[in-house]
Amino acid sequence: MASYFDEHDMSNGEGSAQPRPDQSLLLRILEMARLLQEEMDVEIVSDLGFMSVSGKAPPASKKVVEELETKLISPASACLGKQCAICLVSFVEEDETKVLPCNHQFHSVCIVTWLKQVNSCPICRYELPTDDPNYEEMRKHKARAKQREYEQETLHNSMFG
Amino acid sequence: MTNIAEARIRREFKEVVKSDEVAACNIKVELVNDTFNELRGEIAGPPDTPYAGGQFHLEIKIPETYPFNPPIVKFLTKIWHPNISSVTGAICLDILKDQWAAAMTLRTVLLSLQALLAAAEPDDPQDAVVAQQYKENHSIFEKTARHWTAVYAGGPKSYPDLDSKILSLKTMGFEEHQARAALSSKGWDLERATEYLIN
């Protein structure tokens, strides 16, 4: 009696090392899925890393702090009665102050003490660069993610908007 | 205490005392001693929350490095809230930890705590038992929080059914707060609370 395989004009597959075409396609799809999954995992891991390594942001870059311009309070600006948000004392003539890129002004001593601890403006949290490579990497990563999101939205809007 | 910390607290103290919120009886700060490193705060429970009608007392300790580090704050009044320990009064709030900024003040801290009472963050809990109840059995959570507000913070709403359960545990020899805490964490199931207290 002819075997099942003979009747159906097939080999029984034993010893055939070559994967069939549909099988290799399946393998390739699986490989792609694995890669995608890995990429997602990297993203999740790095997000977690950001949370756990530094719940608190690192100090501002020493160089950037040194390069902040010092501004003396003029008689005219002393009259405005503005105060330093760190020590809550009003600026008086000849006070030495620094202005951050976000335009917030503080006594030099006050803001330098703060920036030795955290890299952001005490009022608006504008972030200055840091000397911490991991934190900077994370920041770039976040900026890229945001940019991607923006691009995707723009693309979506141009197609369906 | 360094000069900047004390000088700043003196200024802030004046700011809180003359603020609109004090006028409206929403927040209050008092000195404990004349060194300005320890204060007592008070916030009113926000309206339309289980804490409405209650007055909550806070212990505020000012570190020497203030305002470069946050004040250390905890609830003295017992409260049932996912982000506040029902045992110690410790608070889980980002601005009192890593999100502190030197431009924040006693006034903004007290207002943030008031906002926390109005909007809990159950996914970032301080008290895991309360947080779980908040998510899984919200009506029991609200009732419990309202009950605690009435008992400990002078809130208006009383629940005779809850009081009678506490009474039955008291007659078994348990202390009142212990009984209340056990019943609260066991969803007011008398049997489970008793079992919990015995073990």
Could you describe the 3D structure shown?
The complex is a heterodimer of chains A (161) and B (199). Chain A is mainly alpha-helical and 161 residues long. Helices cover 51% and strands 6% of the residues of chain A. Among the domains of chain A are: 21-53; 62-115, Herpes Virus-1 (2-Layer Sandwich), CATH 3.30.40. Chain A contains six helices and three strands, in the order H-H-H-E-H-E-E-H-H. Chain A is elongated. The termini of chain A are far apart. Residues 45-54 of chain A have low confidence and may be disordered. Chain B is elongated. Chain B starts with a helix and ends with a helix. At the A-B interface, helix 5 of A face helix 1 of B. Chain B: The active site is at 92 (glycyl thioester intermediate). Chain B: Belongs to the ubiquitin-conjugating enzyme family.
Low-confidence stretches of chain B: none
Mean pLDDT of chain B: 93
Oligomer: heterodimer
| Order of strands in the sheet with most strands of chain A | 1-2-3
Mean pLDDT of chain A: 81
Count of distinct structural domains of chain B = 2
The radius of gyration over CA of chain A amounts to 30 Å
Principal-axes geometry of chain A comes out as: elongated
> What's the CATH topology name of the largest domain in chain B?
Ubiquitin Conjugating Enzyme
Strand content of chain A: 5-15%
Give the helix level of chain B as a range of percent: 40-55%
User: Tally of extended strands of chain A?
Assistant: 3
> Greatest interface and its residue counts?
A-B, 17 and 15 residues
How many β strands of chain B by DSSP?
A: 4
Based on the coordinates given, report the CATH architecture of the largest domain in chain B. Answer: Roll
| Computed Rg of chain B | 18 Å
